[in-house]
Amino acid sequence: MGGLFGTITRESECARDLFYGTDYHSHLGTRRAGMATYSTTEGFFRSIHSLESSYFRTKFEAELPKFKGSSGIGVISDTDAQPLLMKSHLGRFAIATVAKVNNLEEISASLLDRNMPLSEFSSGKINQTELISLLIIQGNDIVSGIENVFRTVKGSCSLLLLTEDGIIAARDSWGRTPLIIGKKDGAYAVAGETTSFANLDYEIEHYIGPGEIVRIKADGYEVLRKPNKGMQVCSFLWIYYGFPTSFYEGRNVEDMRNEAGRIMGEEDDTEVDYASGIPDSGIGMAIGYVNQETRNLVAKMKLIPNSAILKDKRVLFCDDSIVRGTQLRDSTKLLHELGAKEVHMRIACPPLIYACPFVNFSASKSELELITRRVIRDFEGENPQNIDAYSTTGSPEYNRMVSEIARELNLDSLKFSKIESIVSAIGLPKCRICTHCFDGSSFHTLK
Questions:
Q1: CB of 400 within 8 A of CB of 407?
Q2: CA distance 162 to 7
Q3: 120 pLDDT exceeds 80?
Q4: CA-to-CA distance for 304 and 324, rounded, in angstroms?
Q5: Which of 39, 71, 175, 264 has its CA 20 to 30 A from that of 356?
Q6: Beta strands 187-191 and 2-9: pairing type?
Q7: Which residues contact 142 (CB under 8 A, 6 or more apart)?
Q8: pLDDT of 203 above 90
Q9: End-to-end CA distance of the chain
Q10: Cβ(74)–Cβ(96) under 8 Å?
Q11: 211-235: per-residue pLDDT in tens?
């Protein structure tokens, strides 16, 4: 996926907050990271490193003295190398994005037709942040340029611009990924994860709305474009991506997971001896699941299976999702080998049936990499016409699919949360939450 962090202060240097604030987003990506700062005397400084062989801190710590200035932006990216430094008729700026651009080739062809250059990389891939920056500089000003991004990109895009006159933050036009402004004495920050605020002494000041554009300075922020009314925030933020202490739209991640587990636990009459959350995102669900007066379950929360506890016991595990099912199949096999009498699985989200066209939450390149779609193909053939029936909880098709997945994974029982339960646990109206990957629905579809 990816994460963004920016900060601007009345003090002379922002490097410390920028360094730690960006690092607090490391759970959102494993490929690349970058930071950029601006100093009125020394200009822009930017550095990008790969995270594939080491951690964020080890890559950037030695460079911290080079990050001069009172404002800066950072990014954890699972897509392209960024931030990028740009010089245009709109001024000089650094840009970082969290985006999924499904029409990269179409946009690049259009830009080339207008004699605009594109960098060429040895990988042969297009840098989507560069593409987004070129869309921005086609505008008469920053706002119209970002609106051009909103109109042109099929998918989603949230971004930060580090300018010579503060930080400009723009949230995806349908709010699929979050941006939140934090405040402390003498400084402001903007982040995708509010967990980055606490240890840096920021407090949540403002949840940026869908399509809202703000300019942030050390003494405050101004709205350059008001938010759109419609929102389709990704439900998987709470289920999977989010750090437990983070808030999205005012709703805490761990509280949501606890509530989702509680709802599922109250509806479940399976008798087991132990229940365990699979770290990290499954633990919150497990705590909610076992927190019932009518049950005597213990959330063990162990990373390594304990044969002394497992032998001849009925065990239940809570996890956030099943994508391919490969890892879970291996884990279930091991649990049975260690003597578990029964193995039950409870999944925090509904079955993943549709690939996400809006957010990079999976490395899956085809819907057939989803275990659900492979099972449906086996039932219905290569071109099934009734996919919707399989996403309807309790339908004959749904029950058959879940039973087959449980059989393939050697589970004694398998249950998924209902979409209605997820919506209730999040606490937003269904029309403001994207559940496309579960039911194929979306208030806003690809153009």
A1: no
A2: 10
A3: no
A4: 22
A5: 264
A6: antiparallel
A7: 90, 136, 161, 163, 168, 213, 224
A8: yes
A9: 22
A10: yes
A11: 999 999 999 999 999 999 999 999 9
Angle value at C-alpha 367, between 107 and 332, nearest 5 degrees:
140
Length of the chain: 447
Three-state helix/strand/coil letters over 296-360: CCCECCCCCCCHHHHECCEEEEEECCCCCCHHHHHHHHHHHHCCECEEEEEECCCCCCCCCCCCC
Two structure tokens written together for 316: 């239940």
DSSP per residue over 163-182, as a string? Answer: ETTEEEEE--TT-SS--EEE
This model's pTM is above 0.85: yes
Task: For residues 138 and 89, give the distance between their C-alpha atoms in angstroms, rounded to a whole number.
Answer: 9
What residues contact residue 99 under an 8 Å CB cut-off, 6+ apart?
Answer: 2, 79, 128, 129, 132, 153, 155, 156, 157, 158, 159, 172
Q: Which amino acid is at 420?
A: E
Give bridge partners of residue 344 from the DSSP assignment. 316, 413
Q: How far apart are CA 78 and CA 402, in angstroms?
A: 31
Look up tokens 């996403």; give the residue.
391
Helix (H, G, I), strand (E, B) or coil at 144: helix
Q: What percent of the chain has pLDDT over 90?
A: 74
CA–CA distance, 110 with 88 (Å, rounded to integer): 19
Q: Are 239 and 319 in contact (CB under 8 A)?
A: no
How is residue 178 written in tokens? 């979050």
Q: How far apart are CA 421 and CA 349, in angstroms?
A: 9
The tens digit of pLDDT for each residue in 141-173 reads 999 999 999 999 999 999 999 999 999 999 999
Contacts of 67 (CB under 8 A, 6+ apart): 14, 15, 18, 19, 35, 37, 45, 47
Residue with the two structure tokens 């929102």: 231
**Interatomic CA distance for residues 289 and 318, integer angstroms:** 8
pLDDT at residue 118 above 90?
no
The 3-state DSSP class for residue 409 equals: coil
Asked if 315 and 335 touch (Cβ cutoff 8 Å), the reply is: yes
The answer to whether 191 touches 25, Cβ cutoff 8 Å, is yes
212 in Cβ contact with 175 (< 8 Å):
no
Round to whole Å and give the CA distance between 279 and 318: 9
Nearest Cα to 360, choosing from 150, 84, 101, 130?
A: 101
β-pair partners for 3: 76
| DSSP H or E segment with residue 189 | strand 187-191
Q: What is the DSSP annotation of 203-216? A: EEEEEPPTT-EEEE
- Distance, in Å, from the CA atom of 351 to the CA atom of 349, rounded to the nearest integer, reads 7
